[in-house]
Write a structure and sequence with these properties.
The structure is a homodimer. Chain A is mainly α. Chain A has a single domain, classed as lambda repressor-like DNA-binding domains (434 Repressor (Amino-terminal Domain), Orthogonal Bundle), CATH 1.10.260.40. Helices cover about 65% and strands about 0% of the residues of chain A. Chain A is built from four helices and no strands. The longest helix of chain A is centred in the N-terminal third of the chain and has 18 residues. The first copy, chain A, is globular. Chains A and B meet through helix 1 and helix 4 of A and helix 1 and helix 4 of B. Chains A, B: One of its GO terms (molecular function) is DNA binding. Chains A, B: This is Helix-turn-helix transcriptional regulator. Chains A, B: Keywords: DNA-binding. Chains A, B: It holds the Pfam family HTH_3. Chains A, B: InterPro entries: Cro/C1-type_HTH, Lambda_DNA-bd_dom_sf, TransReg_Diox_bact_type.
């Protein structure tokens, strides 16, 4: 999978899991210790997140890290 | 999970999967398009890998990315 495709698909997956749980970007950012704008850039497929960020997002959304992988 | 713990545990998991498949650091590096020294640093828990690197390593080891998550 091309890096750019991966970033877009991860953003889509993150957005879907977040919205399915009716959690806003602001609340996710706050719970994950990240900024809202960073969450927005991830959602738009602009960020190749690190493993640490993947785990922070998973903890904040109360899912396993694997469940966020596209 | 603390970022440092995550890096160490990811390195241990990557090393275990690689050695279980009798694949050397050199062969994994070559297949994943990374350097042997970078693989060594990941093994030693010194790198917070990106999602793209996680997928490259998983493809090279012929496992799912989720199987490399600690």
């Amino acid at each position: 999978m091309l890096e750019q495709d991966l970033e877009v698909r991860f953003g889509e997956k993150l957005r879907r899991v977040r919205t399915d749980k009716l959690i806003s970007q602001e609340v996710l950012a706050d719970k994950a210790g990240l900024t809202r704008s960073y969450i927005g850039r991830i959602d738009r497929g602009q960020i190749n997140v690190s493993l640490a960020t993947l785990y922070k997002l998973a903890d904040a959304l109360e899912v396993t890290p694997g469940e966020l992988l596209p």
